[in-house]
Amino acid sequence: MAGKKVGAQTLVFHNSPVILEAATVVGPLEGQGPLGGAFDIVYPDQLNGHRSWEACERAMMKEAVTLALDKAKVGIDRVDFMLAGDLLNQIISCNFAARDLGIPFLGIYGACSSFAESVGLAAALVDGGYADYTVAAVSSHYGTSERQFRFPTEYGGQRPPYSQCTVTGSGAAVIASQLYQTGVVPVITHFTIGKVIDLGIKDPYDMGSAMAPAAADTLQRHLLDTGRAPDYYDLILTGDLATVGKDIMLELADLAGLNIKSNYDDCGCMVYDRTTQPVFSGGSGCACSAVVVLGSVLERLRRHELRRVLVIATGALLSPVSYQQGESIPSIAHAISIEMRDTKEG
Amino acid sequence: MTRGKSRAMQANKPAKLQQKEYQAIAQRKKMKPPVLRNVVVAWVVGGLICVLGQAINQFFISRGFSSEDAGSPTVAVLILISSILTGLGVYDVLGQFAGAGSAVPVTGFANSVVSAALEFKREGLVLGVGAKMFSLAGPVIVYGTITAFIVGVIRALLR
């Protein structure tokens, strides 16, 4: 019997892995958004002096990791493992960033759910006593995603209003054993690993609809496993459902008898201002949940505006090949529970 | 466990009917593209591009081209304008605004070629620009040629 698992899908961390520090790097559009002030570094344009968007994306991740370690005052050689993911084929952004950083590395792919996946796995390594310091990082980039998943960026096709805008950015978190920080700190308490859910949505522009059932399923499963009610959390966040998916999520939660109306929001709706920015229904991408949580929500936790937050990062597991062959969009959502806790209490 | 909860829990095992049920919800929540607005804007912008083409055509005729010969330089000028606007990052903005209005004329075809060429420049001149340039325009050429062939055959048979 797995002693560190509760219910069917949830890991529980008894040793309080701590989010020691985090750093966020974003592109210009995100910098001009409502959370602009919360990010550490804002690039002036999509290239930031690099020769390609891909080079810019991997540099962004490297910068986020380096900055997070600097803020945590942890030397790079003291980091046991780095877990990272991105959206590009063969996850080249994090592979190349890890090459330059030289930290023992596990690359993961969970599409835009990679944020919760990397943080949850890093916390598990720390909690299990396999690591003292880990780094979890993700990145996404508007230009690299557009050209891989959709059309050339200068192509004059008309996008539907429910499409989303990939967040250009990277977020990195240093997750360490509680022994390395005392006081009231943000601790990762649970990690609920989602199932792949596919309710037959085929439109690759309509990812919010594709992913909402996965988010709702993981939320229900998390609450069932932990025996918690939705109001246990001050804030329940989904990763990048944007306006359409958020709306559906509320309805699915309602159908499940869960009232999340007062404490639910979606990172894709928070990162941009839809009324003034050309982002259609909102943000998407691995970096969407990462920069919102690590840039803004973590700060609100530290200021004690929030005490308990559930982050459900959502991923649409499609590829251009799968949707061109007429397959529907399988989706996944992983949840991490972050709480402010006094680590001395144990 | 409430009844509502157990019902939604079945989402773990998506059945055919449930997919339909869910797709009905998703369809209801999905923002509808403003079709009437899109049609009107496409008609106006597409029409204006044609007016521009006509003006260029008249210009060449006034410079001594026959009305048949003026067609080729007119198309060339429209393609040039569209290519420059694509390079300046304007045509995609126009495309989002006008939809089919800017996609259907020859300027839209030029945009699809130039945008792909620009996008894949970093993969080199051969495997990037050369191989990817017609990734969007290719289908238009293929099916345009096939259509022309079929129409040609029909015309030949009717004579």
Pair with the most extensive interface? A-B, 40 and 46 residues
List the uncertain runs of chain A: none
Q: Termini distance of chain B?
A: 77 Å
**What average pLDDT do the residues of chain A reach?**
95
Structural class of chain B: mainly alpha
What helical percentage do the residues of chain A reach? 25-40%
| Overall outline of chain A | globular
How would you characterize the overall build of this protein?
The complex is a heterodimer of chains A (about 350) and B (about 160). In chain A, helix 2 (about 55-70) crosses helix 3 (about 90-100). The mean pLDDT of chain A is about 95. In chain A, the strands form three sheets. In chain A, strands 1-2-10-15-14-11-12 form a seven-stranded mixed beta sheet, with helices on both faces. Chain A has a six-stranded mixed beta sheet with strand order 4-3-9-7-5-6, with helices on both faces. Chain A has a two-stranded parallel ribbon with strand order 8-13. Chain A is an alpha/beta fold. Chain A has helices at about 30, 55-70, 90-100, 115-125, 140-150, 205-225, 240-255, 265-270, 285-300, 320-325; strands spanning about 5, 10, 20-25, 40, 80-85, 105, 135-140, 165, 170-175, 185-190, 235-240, 265, 285, 310-315, 330-340. Chain A folds into two domains: about 5-180, Peroxisomal Thiolase, Chain A, domain 1 (3-Layer(aba) Sandwich), CATH 3.40.47; about 190-345, Peroxisomal Thiolase, Chain A, domain 1, CATH 3.40.47.40. Chain B has nine helices and no strands. Chain B has helices at about 5-10, 15-30, 35-60, 70-85, 90-100, 100-105, 105-120, 125-130, 140-159. The radius of gyration of chain B is 24 Å and the shape is extended. The model of chain B is unreliable at about 1-15 (pLDDT under 50). The interface between A and B is large, with 40 and 46 residues.
